Amino acid sequence: MNNHTVEAYLNERNKLDGSNYSNWKFKFQTLLEAKNTWAITSSDELKPTIAIGGTTTTIQDWEKREAKAKVSLKLSVKYCIIPHIQECKLATDISTTLKDLYKIKKINLLLFLKCKILSIKMEENELVVAFISRIKELRDKQGGIGVIMPNINLITITMNV
User: Fold this and answer.
1) Which pLDDT tens digit goes with each residue over 100-126?
2) Residue ranges per domain, the chain?
């Protein structure tokens, strides 16, 4: 992966800000896969404990890739996220901290969106198209955090005007 692609991803618009965790995670995982560092970040590849063939090349290679992953993670978040990951020593620590932090927010957001969509009512003089657009917007927000609402639920909500 060339540096231009990495720099483009690390611009302010793409950085994790707390409201875009699902999209950020998907894009960032793709970036780290391209840099051959995702397996380290996700703990699928652990640090070798002994040198293979009497050399430390394998350990040094892992340490270099781990450092790349850690730097990429740190540069991919906005300033408001830094206090949460500042003390993390490894890329896996950063990844786990962010996952845990936004899992709680995801549950709260999901509950909020579910309540909102279940209580939605068509307003007086509102066009049906506008009402359906409001429902779809809430559904899309749920999709943004990884929750897919079945079409039958949308139909039920729409018919419950």
Assistant:
1) 888 777 788 788 888 888 888 888 999
2) 3-105, 120-161
